[in-house]
Amino acid sequence: MELTFQAQLQHRRFHDPSEVQLCTLLNIKTGGCSEDCKYCSQSSRYDTGTKPEKLVKLEEVQKAAIKAKENGSTRFCMGAAWRDMHGRKSGLRKIAEMVKWINDELQMETCVTLGMVDENQAKVLKESGLTAYNHNIDTSREHYPNVISTRTYDDRLETIKQVQKVGIKACTGGILGLGETPDDHVSFLHTLATMERHPESLPINRLVPIKGTPMEEEISKLPPGSNRKLKFEAILRTIATARLIMPESIIRLAAGRYTMKEHEQFLCFSAGCNAIFTGERMLTTMCSGWDEDIAMLKKWGMKPMRSFRRHGINRAEELMKKTVETGFEEPSASPSAI
Question: Which residues does [2Fe-2S] cluster bind (predicted)?
Answer without folding.
Answer: 77, 111, 171, 252
